[in-house]
Amino acid sequence: MIVVFLGAMESNMKIKELAEMTNWQLHASIQSQEKEIRGAFVGDLLSWVMGHSKPEQAWITVQAHINVVAVGVLREFSCLIICEDSQVDEAMLAQALEENLPIFQTTLSAFDVCRKLIELGV
Fold this sequence. Notes:
The chain starts with 14 loop residues before the first helix and ends with a helix. About 35% of the residues lie in helices and about 15% in strands. By secondary structure, the protein is α/β, with parallel strands linked by helices. It comes from bioreactor metagenome.
């Protein structure tokens, strides 16, 4: 399944603000929480994400492995939002922390994450 959502409006919301407005679990350094989110991208096919996403977006996916961090860094995402209660392992968390890439985890579906981001103005 490939779903694409590109934010129509520029957002000035920071990672730390999104964390305060949601109950999503956040794994991030203090420094990385200052990153700004400028729209969102939804997709699970890594090659599609690499070819169609934009820097500073929040990437919403069910994928939870170390290659997701590599793509997130390559595309310069502001953060990853791992949805549908996908389990993130320690290797992925360690790599994301090293790369300064915040990871949110939530039980919400990708659709509901998009709905929440729109509601919050992302």
